[in-house]
Structure formats: structure tokens, C-alpha cells
């Protein structure tokens, strides 16, 4: 398995609820700008007011769920956001790093779920040299 993919869960069918005893959030499928992505995360996951609306701020908030009472947070993607390739890679890196962070911390667990048919695209994005990315 390629580096990074072990941090995500891939499922052939995301039509149902993944787990009924966790905080479960489905990322809207029509996101096409990073500012929109940050706003949706901030509102839906109740980020603190000092959230910076940037990649570092997103990572910081995904690594600190002190305001969440649920132990497990599941972020489900039916599709990838329609971001420029460079920003999409940054988004996946943030998600990967946040999932890895929680593997060694308590009391929360973060799980990021994608459809199985996105595995190859995500693998390619995470393997791409940042200097070759467009956008």
C-alpha cells in the first residue's frame, strides 16, 4: 500500500450510515473552492471562533476536538471536492496528518472515509511531487 492510503478507509458503498454511535458528517459534494471548504468544516464541526480559515488552521482544528463529546468522528466523502489539484493534495495531506495524529492521542479518533473508486486518484495525488502539481 502506498504511503498515506493506510490512513483512510475506502468503502464500495457509502449509501448508508457508516457507524451510528459516532459523530458522523458527510462532506457536501458540491464544494469547489477552498474558502467554501473551510466554511463548511467550520460550521458543521463547530470549529472555535479563532479558526484561521487556512490549511494550518484546518489541521489544528482536526487535531483538537476538545469541544466534541463524541469519541469517534467520521468524515465521509461521497466524492472529492472540486478543488484545483494543488489544493486537493493539500486537503488530503491535512486529512492524512490529522488521522495519524489521533492514532497516538486520546480521547478522540478521526476516521476519513472515501468511496473505493477514488482510491487510485487519492493515491496518485498523495504520491505526486508538489512541484509538478498545477494550480
Characterization of this structure:
This protein has a 4-stranded parallel beta sheet, with helices on one face. It is globular. The longest helix is centred in the last third of the chain and has 19 residues, at 85-103. The protein has 4 helices and 4 strands; from the N terminus they run ββααβαβα. The protein has one domain: Barstar-like (Barnase, Chain D, 2-Layer Sandwich), CATH 3.30.370.10. The chain has 135 residues and is α/β, with parallel strands linked by helices. The model has no long low-confidence stretch (mean pLDDT 83). It has helices at 34-44, 55-62, 85-103, 119-127; strands spanning 9-11, 23-27, 72-77, 109-115. Belongs to the barstar family. It holds the Pfam family Barstar. This is Barstar family protein. It comes from Chenggangzhangella methanolivorans. Residues 31-108 form the Barstar (barnase inhibitor) domain.
List keywords for this structure.
4 helices; four-stranded parallel sheet; alpha/beta; Barstar; Barstar family protein; Barstar-like_sf
Average pLDDT number: 83
Total E-strand runs: 4
Categorize the overall geometry: globular
Largest sheet: 4 strands, parallel
Seen as an oligomer or otherwise, the chain set is: single chain
CATH topology, by name, is: Barnase, Chain D
- From the alpha-carbon coordinates, what is the Rg to the nearest angstrom? 14 Å
Task: Give the low-confidence spans.
Answer: none
- What level of helicity do the residues show? 25-40%
Distance between the termini: 27 Å
What strand line-up does the widest sheet have? 1-4-3-2
CATH superfamily: Barstar-like
Q: In sequence order, what are the helices and strands, one letter per element?
A: EEHHEHEH
Domain count, please report it. Answer: 1
Name the CATH architecture.
Answer: 2-Layer Sandwich
Helix/strand-derived category reads alpha/beta
Percentage of β-strand residues: 15-25%
CATH class: Alpha Beta
Number of helices: 4
Amino acid at each position: 500500500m502506498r504511503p498515506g492510503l493506510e490512513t483512510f478507509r475506502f468503502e464500495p458503498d457509502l449509501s448508508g450510515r457508516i457507524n451510528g454511535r459516532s459523530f458522523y458528517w458527510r462532506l457536501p459534494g458540491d464544494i469547489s473552492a477552498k474558502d467554501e471548504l473551510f466554511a463548511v468544516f467550520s460550521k458543521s464541526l463547530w470549529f472555535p471562533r479563532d479558526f484561521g480559515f487556512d490549511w494550518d488552521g484546518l489541521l489544528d482544528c482536526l487535531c483538537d476536538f476538545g469541544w466534541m463529546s463524541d469519541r469517534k468522528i467520521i468524515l465521509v466523502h461521497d466524492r472529492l471536492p472540486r478543488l484545483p489539484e494543488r489544493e486537493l493534495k493539500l486537503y488530503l495531506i491535512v486529512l492524512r496528518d490529522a488521522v495519524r495524529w489521533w492514532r497516538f492521542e486520546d480521547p478522540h479518533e478521526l476516521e476519513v472515509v472515501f468511496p473505493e473508486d477514488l482510491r487510485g486518484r487519492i493515491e496518485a495525488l498523495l504520491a505526486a511531487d508538489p512541484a509538478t502539481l498545477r494550480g
